[in-house]
Write a structure and sequence with these properties.
The protein is of the alpha+beta class. Helices cover 32% and strands 12% of the residues. The strands form five sheets. Strands 5, 6, 7, 8, 9, 10, 11, 12 and 13 form a nine-stranded mixed β-sheet that branches. The chain has a two-stranded antiparallel ribbon with strand order 1-2. It binds a DNA duplex through helix 9, strand 6 and strand 7.
DNA sequence: GGGCCCGCAGGG
DNA sequence: CCCTGCGGGCCC
């Protein structure tokens, strides 16, 4: 084979690797793409003009631009050259923000992520992806496809490598070290890398089809005392907050008052007239669970509580009784959570049906009034206030103010404690139902036929359960599916961990069977620890170094220097074995990740929260409770009412501004878009039998 | 003060 | 897994 001329650049010290001289500044030429310095006089094709030197591409870069290497598995042409052009186009686009540019660049580099945002994945999934990033081919910048490893420890796609060789190159594209003729003739696939990439790809695909509920789920006991914003949340404060800890032991679907036995923190239960800053706090004391919805209830179980927040203009508040409007009938398209405009008829379904069930059964319904109800004299000036137990005496449908049918409920108070607005020292007595004029035009009227579950006991002189309350279907202190979601999360974490551990196991040394330290990839594409492989030939090393030894001895030694895995001669490789740094980095990343996850799971077990800071909101209330315990029940109620008036005056609503806080909201719009990963799958399939294919 | 936005949580 | 929702923050 005729000797070919290869262009070589200058090394890190500025010495030309071809002539071994150090070119002067005038003799040196820098590539516009890769910024590598080259010696002009040693170039086989020097630039024609001075203008050319300014926009000069080195032989390697111009080669890649002129002969694009097909992107493996993607089914389309790309190259580092066109990639660079595309990146430049993004960088110079003034209409894009920095964040948008970063996003476009990422999309460009991860073609398989599709046109939309990549599906949001958990941190551990992201880490798996970043580990994969370390295994990109230096030619095509894509994840290694049928990886081949040079003895100098660099990895390339088989296609890219053979193309490079086909162009007459016999040096490593990364370090310029010579490629053994045998490898140039028949490059072998590094099966360890294949397995590692395949497992990681499968993990990535699994992550991509995960649900949008992949964010961490926190058990009640681990939640902080106040609502907190999660990592996911774009807005600060309570705008998109997660709920704080539930302080009471009542299950979510508990009917009736929150009693002292359900209040381990204060041992007093929730008293009429208690107030809270917001819906989250109200929820934490078990009074009204949903943090937006006005009705808490289940259609087949009944409604436990309602909130009067002025959200429905048909509401009519008379203190001891009020007319409540059902939910629904409003257009919530466009990602709205509420809407003041009615646009279609309400039906007795979902929470409306739950309230109707409570009406039929005569269940006690907790009532909360909000300062947002501006038309009522009975609403608190500030905050939210618990006003006690009411019963739904009747319900019906009528045409609302906006002309659409609404569900209507007559609530009548039936609590043993006096209402916050009354000067009475005793609670309610059974009272005749008010006359409701709109009942004359009402449809679908429902009245209770059987005796109510919650009723007044004349003998005992108080309201109480006359029938056993409906048995709870929920666990105390837990959301409906929180337990399930938690199990799911733990399962996914364990799965991810096992993937990483599996990956690491794949990186074990043939000799010591342990995870490789400083991995060496032989020309026969087998991987060993540097120390293991060198140790295996320790005796020969000494002889081999003595090159003046006789021919017979050397040959005998060379025969012994066989790959422990496939018995190929690796004597030459052992003369100057180079660590496969990319593989080493993958191994180290995996080890770091596993260690980190172990640490995190330990911390989680210890109940540590980074972002959400636990704030003890209860001290004041506990002191209050202790004080109250010394006095009679009625006295404490009066005190409570007085305190309510004071706190109402003191309360100020925070209304700060944060500049540019919503500037990045568009980035989150694609959060539910699932990565199709089609090219990925194709690539995985092609990887099924890489060795066999490569030998064809 | 109106309007828009969107994470969270529960229902079904 | 999709739908619903009488919140809360921030911009205009």
């Amino acid at each position: 084979m005729a000797q070919q001329v290869y262009d070589l650049p200058c090394d890190g010290e500025g010495t030309c690797m071809a002539c071994k001289n150090k070119p002067t500044a005038e003799e040196s030429l820098t590539c516009k793409t890769c910024a590598t310095p080259w010696h002009i006089t040693c170039l086989s094709v020097p630039p024609n003009s001075l203008a050319d030197t300014l926009q000069w591409d080195c032989p390697d870069c111009s080669l890649l631009s002129a002969n694009p290497v097909p992107v493996s598995g993607a089914g389309e042409s790309s190259s580092s050259g066109s990639l660079i052009t595309a990146i430049c186009a993004i960088e110079t686009d003034s209409s894009l923000t920095e964040r948008e540019k970063a996003k476009r660049r990422q999309q460009l580099l991860c073609k398989d992520a599709g046109p939309s945002d990549r599906k949001e994945v958990t941190n551990s999934d992201d880490n798996l992806l970043s580990i994969l990033d370390g295994l990109n081919c230096s030619f095509c910048m894509q994840l290694l496809e049928r990886p081949v490893s040079t003895p100098c420890g660099h990895n390339f796609c088989l296609k890219c490598f053979t193309k490079w060789i086909g162009q007459g190159k016999r040096n490593c594209a990364n370090c310029r070290k010579e490629i053994p003729p045998k490898m140039a003739r028949l490059p072998l696939i590094n099966s360890t890398l294949v397995t590692v990439i395949r497992i990681a790809k499968m993990a990535k695909a699994n992550a991509a089809v995960g649900t949008s509920r992949d964010y961490p789920v926190i058990r009640n006991e681990d939640r902080p005392d106040k609502a907190f914003s999660t990592e996911r949340s774009v807005k600060s404060g309570n705008a998109n907050a997660a709920s704080g800890k539930i302080f009471v032991t009542t299950p979510m679907d508990h009917f009736g008052p929150i009693l002292p036995e359900n209040d381990p923190m204060r041992n007093q239960g929730v008293l009429v007239g208690e107030t809270w800053e917001n819906r989250f706090e109200c929820r934490q004391w078990g009074v009204h669970n949903p943090h937006i919805s006005g009705i808490a209830g289940q259609s087949k179980h009944g409604a436990q509580s309602v909130t009067l927040s002025g959200g429905y203009e048909d509401d009519e508040d008379h203190g001891e009784w009020f007319l409540y409007t059902g939910s629904g009938g409003r257009d919530l398209s466009g990602n709205k959570r509420t809407n003041k405009e009615h646009s279609f008829d309400q039906q007795f379904e979902n929470s409306n049906e739950a309230l109707r069930l409570s009406c039929r059964m005569g269940y006690p319904v907790r009532v909360v009034r909000s300062h947002k109800e501006k038309r009522s004299s009975y609403a608190p000036e500030k905050r939210l206030r618990y006003d006690g137990i009411y019963r739904v005496e009747k319900c019906w449908r009528k045409t609302g103010i906006k002309g659409f049918k609404v569900c209507r409920y007559l609530f009548v108070r039936c609590d043993n404690a006096p209402a916050p607005w009354t000067s009475d020292v005793h609670g309610d007595r059974p009272r005749p139902l008010p006359i409701i004029e709109e009942l004359n035009v009402a449809i679908d009227i429902t009245e209770r036929m059987e005796s109510p579950s919650w009723d007044y006991d004349e003998e005992k002189g108080c309201w109480m359960w006359k029938k056993p309350p409906p048995s709870s279907r929920k666990r105390a202190n837990y959301g409906r599916s929180e337990e399930g979601k938690r199990t799911k999360k733990v399962k996914r974490q364990a799965q991810n961990k096992s993937i990483k551990e599996k990956l690491l196991k794949e990186c074990s040394c043939y000799i010591c069977k342990k995870v490789m330290t400083s991995p060496l990839t032989t020309p026969c594409a087998h991987n060993f620890c540097k120390s293991c492989l060198e140790g295996a030939f320790a005796g020969q090393n000494f002889v081999r170094q003595r090159t003046c030894e006789g021919r017979r001895t050397l040959r005998a030694q060379k025969n012994i220097m066989k790959c422990p895995s496939c018995s190929n001669d690796i004597a030459e490789f052992l003369q100057n074995p180079q660590v496969n740094r990319e593989l080493m980095e993958v191994i180290e990343s995996l080890q770091r990740e596993i260690a980190k996850e172990n640490k995190e799971s330990k911390e989680e077990a210890d109940g540590i929260h980074e972002k959400a800071k636990g704030v003890d909101v209860s001290n004041e209330i506990v002191e209050e409770a202790q004080e109250n315990n010394l006095k009679g029940q009625i006295e404490s109620e009066i005190q409570k009412t007085e305190k309510l008036k004071k706190t109402s005056g003191k309360c100020t609503q925070k209304r700060g501004r944060k500049k540019g806080s919503t500037s990045c909201k568009q980035l989150d719009d694609g959060k539910n878009v699932v990565d199709p990963s089609e090219p990925e799958k194709a690539a995985s399939e092609e990887l099924q039998d890489p060795v066999a294919e490569s030998k064809v």
